[in-house]
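Recall that a protein's primary structure is simply its ordered list of amino acids. Everything else, from secondary elements to tertiary packing, is in principle encoded there. The following example makes that idea concrete.
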Amino acid sequence: MTSTVPTAVPHTDGQQPPITMFGPDFPYAYDDYLAHPAGLGQIPATAHGSEVAVIGGGLSGIVAAYELMKMGLKPVVYEADQIGGRLRTVGFEGCDPSLTAEMGAMRFPPSSTALQHYIDLVGLETRAFPNPLAEATPSTVVDLKGETHYAETLDDLPQVYRDVAAAWNACLEEGADFSAMNRALRERDVPRIRAIWSRLVEKLDNQTFYGFLCDSEAFRSFRHREIFGQVGFGTGGWDTDFPNSILEILRVVYTEADDHHRGIVGGSQQLPLRLWEREPEKLVHWAYGTSLKSLHAHGEPRPAVTRLHRTAGNRITVTDASGDIRTYGAAVFTAQSWMLLSKIACDDALFPIDHWTAIERTHYMESSKLFVPVDRPFWRDKNERTGRDVMSMTLTDRMTRGTYLLDDGPDRPAVICLSYTWCDDSLKWLPLSANERMEVMLTSLGEIYPDVDIRKHIIGSPVTVSWENEPCFMGAFKANLPGHYRYQRRLFTHFMQDRLPADQRGIFLAGDDISWTAGWAEGAVQTALNAVWGVMHHFGGTTDPTNPGPGDLYDELAPVELPED
């Protein structure tokens, strides 16, 4: 069992082709595009060495910069803080350097096939992540309304949890053609994907996640809906998503984005850092041994961008925090889109007015985490009286919500994610320091595990993050509200600029908040590749006929367009 409540109605046809996270909105095979020996495309020799601004050094920005460099362009990366964005791995002061905490992205599904391309490219290892009831998780405790249940599989939980699992599967099947869509995605049956999804977008764009549950006969019980909200599927409770568009949730379950997660050994931030330093074997124009790092003075990105405006020749002019002003033939903006409204002075002419509206309407969810280092994975000890693990991966309606136990073997120091919370649950912690948060979490866990002294195992100070309080993020990730499909479509399709006036071309949006699957690193990679195609096309470049890019197939695959009137 790999999820608290299964996300899929199982197939009975034996062999199942692997699914990919390209999703129903734009079913383009990014993994095939990346794997093709012809590469992603080429630009005219006259454009070789041309500078392109890449604003934001998160995964999307670094992937875009890396691929643009390989084409023979010169990416100039701007980063306000540190390379990695929400792939942020931190250590614990005074502790073994191998002890790390993932403050942002920490678990990645196998369906993230474009992301996996880069994980493999830089030689990183992954291992199964200990989600609730996952095979890699020795045990899970579900604690709701003061009742605590210990489980190693779903079958160990009371019958009501299996009833909730069955209700969720029935709800998906009845309301969202789950089996048909899942099969079409596996088989990459584009006409079938589009036929199912087009109907659902029109039907469900105005529906909340909670409303979708309430409309299902399978979820007529409030008790079942309440349990589902607390326990959810895959990674745990999803009630913080109840106000969001059901389309967002369907994208997750269709593509198995919340299943079979793996973590990156040593921390996810290694991925953008290694790409920054990597010297590609095949690249155009640049000498062998060139890397993004070597193309930047002192091996560091340019500082934060403070102003963006258009200048003569429809060029993009960038002012940074040092006062330096540079002008580019093209730019890729990968930072969170709200930065364009608050932190960066922008010309209105940068984007069409309806794109500005979409940026303004983008809805970001809050998220907080709290980690502590411990002397060893003591949770694997057995309770002499019960024979059970003394502590387990924990889902609860108490203040901690989700507690994850992370170790690298029985004789090594380990890490506990004491709490991972979203939205209102996250906002409760905003005024509290890391130590104050730790005290609250230890008190909550003490009520679930009265015989376990967690505190005596702690060997260092806690580390915490509230992404809504991070000045360059102001939230964890985008989550569309009902009625936001049209806004998201504008942002995702921005890389297709031939129909825009000439004075609104040349700057390309990317990043996971531009993608259909926000909150997942795969969306950051896919939109980076869209932007790379857009920049290539902007400079007069083309793809190889045997490996058409996302823009070449856009008319065939374009997301369904809802009427504006």
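Residues 332 and 508 are 5 Å apart (CA to CA). The two ends are 46 Å apart (CA to CA).
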